[in-house]
Task: inverse folding
């Protein structure tokens, strides 16, 4: 049994008809087919849901683009900040410099003898002294220039 076909005659403004005609030409179909396709997507609950999802996705993309443009951040731009060296815990035998209290300058190089949670103990000329870890700077081992 063939599906029943109904005929409807409607009047639309010329601006809307021009848009319909352009859209039908873009899709390579007749105006009637374009109208039927639009009605099916509008009346079908699944069609509306897919249109809503697509619209939501497009809005999210646009918001992300505007946000990155506003903040001046792009995902493809490499970071201008150099990477930080890995932080490691102080160990017995490490060579450190002690910062002079109340000064940004560091004093002599000393060897760590004991390590606590907050303090580290170093061997000085006068004996063993404790310093806060924040006042110590780890010295990386460098080859002796004199032996070369």
Result:
């Amino acid at each position: 049994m063939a599906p029943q076909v109904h005929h409807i005659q409607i009047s639309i403004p010329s601006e809307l008809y021009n848009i319909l005609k352009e859209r039908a030409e873009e899709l390579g179909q007749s105006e009637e087919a374009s109208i039927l396709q639009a009605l099916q997507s509008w009346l079908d609950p699944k069609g509306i849901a897919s249109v809503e999802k697509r619209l939501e996705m497009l809005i999210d993309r646009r918001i992300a683009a505007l946000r990155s443009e506003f903040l001046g951040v792009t995902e493809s731009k490499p970071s201008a900040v150099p990477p930080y060296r890995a932080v490691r815990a102080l160990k017995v035998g490490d060579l450190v410099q002690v910062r002079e209290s109340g000064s940004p300058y560091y004093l002599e190089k000393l060897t760590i003898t004991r390590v606590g949670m907050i303090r580290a103990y170093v061997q000085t000329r006068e004996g063993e002294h404790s310093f806060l870890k924040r006042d110590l700077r780890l010295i990386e081992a460098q080859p002796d220039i004199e032996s070369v």
Observations:
- The CA atoms of residues 92 and 113 lie 5 Å apart.
- The chain has three helices and five strands.
